[in-house]
Amino acid sequence: MNFHQQNNTRRRREAAVFGLLRASTYLVLLCGALVVGTIVFKGAPVLFKAEFPFINIAFFTEAPETLHVFEHDGKKLELGDRDYRAFMENLAAPSASQPAVAPRSEHAYVYSVGGIFPCIVGTLLLVAGSMTLALFLGVCSAIYLNEYARQNTVTRLIRLAVLNLAGVPSIVFGLFGFGLFVIFLGWNVSLMAGWFTLAFMVLPVVITASEEALKSVPRGYREASLALGATRWQTIRKSVLPYALPGILTSSILGIARVAGETAPIMFTAAYVVRDQLPWQVAKLTDFFFQGVMALPYHIYVVSSKIPQNEYTERVQYGSTLVFLLLVALIAAASILLRNRLRKKHSW
Amino acid sequence: MNACLTKQILRTEPPAPRVTATNTTATPAPAEAVPHASPDASLETEIRAPHLIEISNLDFYYGEKKALDCVNLTIDANRVTAFIGPSGCGKSTLLRCLNRMNDLIDGAAVRGGTIKIGDADINAPGIDAIELRKCVGMVFQKSNPFPKSIHENVAYGLRIQGIRDRAEIARRVELSLRGAALWDEVKDRLNDNALGLSGGQQQRLCIARALAVEPQVLLMDEPCSALDPVATGKIEDLIHELKTRYTIIIVTHSMQQAARVSDKTAFFYLGRLVEYDDTRTIFMNPANPQTEAYVSGRFG
Ligand SMILES: Nc1ncnc2c1ncn2[C@@H]1O[C@H](COP(=O)(O)OP(=O)(O)OP(=O)(O)O)[C@@H](O)[C@H]1O
Ligand SMILES: [Mg+2]
User: Fold this and answer.
1) I want to staple B204 with a disulfide (CB 3.0 to 4.6 A). Which of A170, A295, B182, B223 is the partner?
2) Quick check: pTM over 0.90?
3) Taking the CB of residue A27, how many other CB atoms lie within 10 A of it?
4) Spatial contact of B213 and B2, defined as CB atoms under 8 Å apart
5) Are both A70 and A189 inside the same structural domain?
6) Closest residue by CA, ligand 1 atom 14
């Protein structure tokens, strides 16, 4: 018997295919690393600093301000809006001995100092509200489709429609939300309009995934429960949903990243370029739901497309982006923890 | 429903008249009605239903496919009745008709005939399948305990009925576990997950869970098919004990099991009831050649 390698072409082809597969994987990895690397490299200095407390707290807790760059007394000054005003007042009330000298060669860069606190808050509010809505609506429809409805042409059509909805570009959802919520229902640019628009955008994902999760719960649990005299709803609540919940959450984590990240659906429906009041600074409770907010992805869009790119503005551009990445990672991590705890509690 | 199914039934059985399938394929054995033995029993018989379950001319369809064809069968209280027959002949279908579990299958429906349990037609419009299922418990082929603690598994049916009292639940859980001959094995680990039990223990847990809601009838669909002989033996012993209090219907593929546990046996073939008689008669002296061929292992 001769078991030695005979066919060299075959071996070479094998090696070539394998090499191609490996190369494409590494290329993807490289691109990812480049993107994240650049953002971290340029954004980290904005968020962190060398001395205590190591975190640039102002960036997380303050509102964006305009940066004024100018020369005064032969010195180059970079001042935020508030400092700049104080400085100018000082100049306007000069001591008698010294005549006022107007600053020369002044440049102003909007949003380039201060922080992005209102954007973080806005994004958190948008994510929380729209995911709650999407999960509620999505799980309800999935339960209806999977547990109650008879499997016939109508349900098949509904499923097809849901699948198609998943392929609709987010800008279309944005325009839809603008037309329906902002104009027709008269909600204006508001949290409510943003919540519903974003919820509709992720609804297909949530429905499909919830149905999968419900289907994966063994039939035996349902039959056992019903055979003990439980109603369908008791069965679903006690013997189906708890075991489907980890699966539903897994898919919603993807939804969270999408809801937090999409700019198109909120730019007409919920996002303000700039807003001085924070969301809780409202006169009545109802105003809370009908106010627009600043949001991270939209802020990133604004600061990277509407203001010049230079060493003064790069700070907020990369800083916001890094915060955004961290925020999404944080929300996702929290949901993964929650899911794992549920999974442990209802393991099967 | 609970009330109307009960009372007359729970008193022990009258010696029921011998029943044979009135079925076209079967050649009915001469129906020799056994007269009630004791003369003083005559008064009582009037208030007793002779049979707990009466299935008459039952036609059942899955969509357009006929799965049961004109089945006539009467089942006695406090007896074990075995359904036997080759795979796909409709044993499970008939069993699931008795607690209306087929309601859950799209397009499945009884299209003719009636099933009476006690004196209620269970397919009549006013009947609540939920109440029915509390009376007619079921144990499945594949043991399916919930991934909860042993205690919670047995308590499930009680909690569903809205019983909140912990002491009452604990009492009935113990009673059911004792009833299912499982108490001694699990009494020290009631809070452990039920999935940690052995296959045989899991199946007895499922029986205990069914007993906890105090049904009258216990349907068992091949309860031992996934178990080894020792575990099977335990379940069979259990069935013997349970029949003093419950009416048991068991589907089985094992002739020996049917012979060991049942008082009466029904043989099905292609959706029809071929023969129904005392188990001894079915196995020793069947009237129908098909039955004879099946029980002697020549087909099926
Ligand atoms: N959900 C269903 N939908 C359509 N047809 C079904 C369904 N369940 C069973 N059937 C059909 O009905 C007939 C009877 O099935 P059933 O499960 O009652 O047989 P069985 O006697 O229990 O068989 P086995 O011994 O293999 O369990 C079979 O032909 C089967 O294909
Ligand atoms: Mg079967």
Assistant:
1) B182
2) no
3) 10
4) no
5) no
6) B90
